[in-house]
Structures are given as C-alpha cells and as structure tokens.
C-alpha cells in the first residue's frame, strides 16, 4: 500500500508457553497474526557486517522474528525511519506492504525467521530505493 508509514510497523508479542523443559511459541494463521501464512523462510549464517533486505513490497505483508540471536530491522516510508532491535524468539515486527526494509547488525549465530502473506513473486519487489520513493508519491 502506498499510504503505509513506518508507524504501521508494529511490535507483536506471540504466545509463549513456558515449562521447566523449555519454551514453545506457536503462530496460528489469522489468530496470532492478521494474515494467512503462505510462505516461511529464514536467513542464517549472515557474515559480520553484511546487511539483508534493501527492498520494499507492493502487496506482501510479513512478520519478522529473531528466532535466535539478534539483529536490527530498519524501516523507511520515504519520510520517516525507525529501527527495531529484534532479540526475542517470541516477539516480532508486523510489516505492512509499502515499507522499505533493511536488516543489519546480525549477531553471530542469529536466525531471522520470516512469515509471509504470499508466495514469492518477483513483481511484488521494489529493489531500487529511488523507484520506491516514486511508488510512495
């Protein structure tokens, strides 16, 4: 969506079931998150100093979680930016469409888990920041 802003990116605390043997967090479509999960992927073994992301989406919504370790999620809408530090496997950031994102400052052994609202579609990506700014106008 063209009219989304970085303030539409919201922190979400997922249900955590704690026992003496460890914790479990389950994510249910349309219950714990406001969209149906159509694709799940994760980033790992990101070399120190490298960044991921660097794009926006026209329609795709995502929930981004630090399943292990930590990293920063920097979001921009063409006017404002925000930085979220993700470091808990039961917390994530709900990403609406129409937001530029970059992931950086990955800790050693970190895993970025992404739950997405649709299957991979190259045409949904905006990979050039200047094109993103034109899209947002």
From TrEMBL:
<dbReference type="InterPro" id="IPR011051">
    <property type="entry name" value="RmlC_Cupin_sf"/>
</dbReference>
<protein>
    <submittedName>
        <fullName>WxcM-like protein</fullName>
    </submittedName>
</protein>
<dbReference type="InterPro" id="IPR014710">
    <property type="entry name" value="RmlC-like_jellyroll"/>
</dbReference>
<feature type="domain" description="Sugar 3,4-ketoisomerase QdtA cupin">
    <location>
        <begin position="9"/>
        <end position="136"/>
    </location>
</feature>
<dbReference type="Pfam" id="PF05523">
    <property type="entry name" value="FdtA"/>
</dbReference>
<dbReference type="InterPro" id="IPR008894">
    <property type="entry name" value="QdtA_cupin_dom"/>
</dbReference>
